[in-house]
Amino acid sequence: MALFTDGAITSIEDLRGHDTQLLNVATVEGIDVTRKLALAQEELWVEVAGMLGRLNAPPAIRQVVVTPPLKLWHIFRTLEMVYADAYNSQLNDRYGGRRDEYHEKAKWAYNKVLQGGLGIAADPVEQAAAPVMRVSAGGLADGSYYAAIAWTNATGEEGASSTPATIQVSGSSFAVQTTAPANVKGWNVYCGTSPAAMTIQNPQTLAPGQTWVQPDTLSTTGRRAGSGQAPSYRVAVPRMIQRG
Fold first, then answer.
1. Is the overall model pTM greater than 0.85, yes or no?
2. Where are the domains of the chain?
């Protein structure tokens, strides 16, 4: 699971999984769905920070993990905002009905967050920055290669993987490097011939500052990069009054 501060919690594809008409409505009504995703996340940031602020010795917001209920809260809040805009533009009762439906779903997801508590990473590992790739000596098959990395903490917990970098090789191989924050104690590298087919290449966790040089054979049987840390624990949060 990603950290709340890693970036976008959900994507347009996540929204479409709950509402197949979303993009049609957005196109017809001139609604910027990407902007709505960002605005909804800003609202959740304020609310989650408020939850933490009501605790004694609260964890930092950068420790909050995006659990399934928290992600659903963001999805439904975004969809509510999209249909609120559509309704305000056309005063179409169908849009108003969808707005109200997602408002209720957002409240339901919020209550699930309260019931389960906020997931907290004791030693949070942020999403890794995209790696630096460079040509290196070797005999890897010619073609394009993609690499993503993930940082690990002192206990081996892995953060969310980076966006992939790419390189073209011909009669050579490639090397992968990263510069990590102080709390990062290791890192893993995932490579493949497409972003959808990257698997782990290093047999042991790499040390900070170490360079990974890709062998002439690309491993395709290892695990794929995960989405981030699971919560170390959960904290109960006080109920906040929701709008509506």
1. yes
2. 4-124, 132-213
